[in-house]
Amino acid sequence: MGCDARRAGEDGLATDMEKQLKSSALNRRWRWFTNHLATVLAILATILVIAPLVAIFINLVYKGASSLNLNFFTKIPAPVGEEGGGMANAIVGSAVLLGVASALGIPMGIAAGIYLAEYGRGTKLSNVVRFTADVLNGVPSIVMGVAVYALIVVPMKGYSAFAGGVALGIMMIPTVGRTTEEMLLMVPHSIREAALGLGVPNWRSMVSITLKTAMPGVITGCMLAFARVAGETAPLIFTAFGNQFWSTALNQPIAALPLQIYVYALSPYDEWHRLAWAGSLVLIVLIVVSVSLVRYVTTRGVLKGAS
Amino acid sequence: MLLCALSIFGIVALIANELVMSSKLTLAKFGLKFFVGSAWDPVNEDFGALPFIYGTLVSSLVSLVLAVPLAVGVAVFLTEMCPKALRGILSFLTELLAAIPSVVYGLWAIFVLVPLLRTYIDPVLIKLLGWTGLFTAPDFGIGMFAAGVILAIMILPIISSLTREVMSAVPYSQREAVLALGATRWEMIRMGVLRNARIGIVGSIILGLGRALGETMAVAMVIGSSPTISKSLLAPAATMASVIANEFAEASDDTYRSALIEIGLALFLVTIVVNMLARLLVWAVTRGAPARTA
Fold it and tell me: Which residue of B has its CA nearest to A29?
């Protein structure tokens, strides 16, 4: 009797172990499966993300390249229904707007960056400034447009290139400031100390040593900000407003490439759609070139002296 | 230098001040009712921002639902799985995605994405998910769903690059410890990396949300600009940013303009709060980590 019971117990143990073995095999297979599933899903996600980028570039080149000719760069838009015409005024207009924006945004951004990295390092004030700059970076560009409209367009009683430039310039400040700060922080202390040790005044060591060492990085930061605002449309709709004719006057409405693309894209005319694609291609080439340049400079050790 | 640094505060204060001053008219006239009213009738000067608030929230939500799994997938692939040679190229490509101007996305969406959705994807959604009421005909291609898709493409690079940053901030010893216990690679990523980086990932998602809330041009071009609240995602709608872009230049009288500026003010405040939240979360995670190189 007792013997039987013991035998039954041993049998139970054996089946338990078998079960365990089986479940651990199942478990292993399941873990193998999820592991590979995760890998496949991650690769799939990456492909899905790259796909629109490739699609956008193919479309831009396919639809835009055929319209890029001399007329595009030299003529102003033709009246509706007429063939030809270009976006020369929009390209020049964008250049004027970006000029105004850079004149405002780059000096102020660099100065703010110098303060953050050199004078206010570690202070509570500089932390708050840094945080505010990051938050300002996230403010929608359309809000910037509305604010500048209230600030400049209303008192001046008219849309103007100046207002558009200011809106873009304000958007450049946080980007330029933060990259300048990061680049200055990369300059080693020993260089500063060497300059100060030679009896050079603080401001002079700042300008001729620290800033000079970090210059390539600061310039790339400026280009990045430049490329970012070059494609901005929303802040220009009711500041620069757009213009079908030649104008470079700062107190008049002015054409801009992104603005023109927006207007043409929503128009019902094929001719204008064609110009919109060509304009986008120009804009993208400009931006891709500057972004690649920035990446090249920051990764290929042009900053070697600084790191 | 100090002056320029302080000017950043000045700018924020100036923007807030200008927006409040210019929207005084409707602030006084409608008060809080402005944000719960759903009438948008410029002719009779009756304004309520609810349809636009709804549009902004729903389009952002759609974009997050589409973008977050993909962005985390890309980040996982790039930080944990990808061969080194490919990593540089792929991260450069996702950065490029972030550099494309909004208006070019809009142009592409109008002429490529919307026809694609209308002919291939929307009919499938109507057939499969029509019973939920979220995808019902009539379908014009443009509308809330198209806006959500283009927004998803636009916020993906932001979410994935920040997620990558917080994932690389997770110390290697964590990964090694989990692997040493016999975990597979996915278990290592799930338990060792994602669990440690989750706060930062949430932060990056919120940052993406901040971008989606304020994104203007691409959305304005494909959402269809209609101040209505409809259950179907395929119906045209409008967001806070898109209504400003589409109607501001035409707004002739002061009340109309003031109403649009008040929407801008609301957008300003919301994005500031969202961004502050996101920055604090990302900062909390990456604080102790060494600076990212390149």
Answer: B184
Predicted confidence (pLDDT) per residue in A271-299, tens digit: 888 889 999 999 998 888 877 877 777 66
Contacts of A45 in chain B (CB under 8 A): 69-74, 77
Cβ contacts (< 8 Å) between B70 and chain A: which residues? 45, 48-49
Q: Which residue of chain A is at minimal alpha-carbon distance from B158?
A: A138
Q: Evaluate whether residue B19 is within a structural domain.
A: no
- Per-residue pLDDT tens for B40-97? 888 888 888 899 999 999 999 999 999 999 999 999 999 888 888 888 888 888 878 8
Q: For residue A19, is pLDDT > 80?
A: no
Query: How far off is chain B from A184, nearest CA to CA, in Å?
Result: 14
Is B101 in contact with A258 (Cβ distance < 8 A)? Answer: yes
Residues A70-306: name the CATH superfamily: MetI-like (1.10.3720.10)
Does residue B103 surpass a pLDDT of 90?
A: yes
Is position B12 within any domain? no
Single pTM value for the model? 0.87
Instruction: Indicate the pLDDT class of residue B285, thresholds 50, 70 and 90.
Output: confident
Phi, psi for residue B26 in degrees, rounded to 5 = -80, -30
Q: How far is B137 from chain A (nearest CA, A)?
A: 24
- B70 contacts A45? CB cut-off 8 A: yes
Q: How far A12 CA lies from chain B's nearest CA (Å)?
A: 30
Query: At B106, which CATH number?
Result: 1.10.3720.10
Chain A neighbors of B10, CB-CB under 8 A: none
Q: Is B73 a domain residue?
A: yes
Q: How far apart are the first and last CA of chain A?
A: 84
How many other CB atoms are there within 10 angstroms of residue B133's CB atom?
A: 10
Q: Which of A131, A173, A227 sits opposite B279 (nearest CB)?
A: A131
The answer to whether B104 contacts A284, with C-beta atoms less than 8 Å apart, is yes
Q: How many domains does chain B have?
A: 1
Which pLDDT value is given to residue B136? 81
**Boundaries of domain holding B94:** 49-286
In a domain, B55, yes or no: yes
Is this prediction's ipTM beyond 0.90? Answer: no
Chain B residues whose CB is inside 8 A of the A35 CB are 184-187
* Inter-chain CB proximity A34 and B19 less than 8 Å: no
Summarize chain B as % helix, strand, coil (round to 5).
75, 0, 20
Residues in chain A: 307
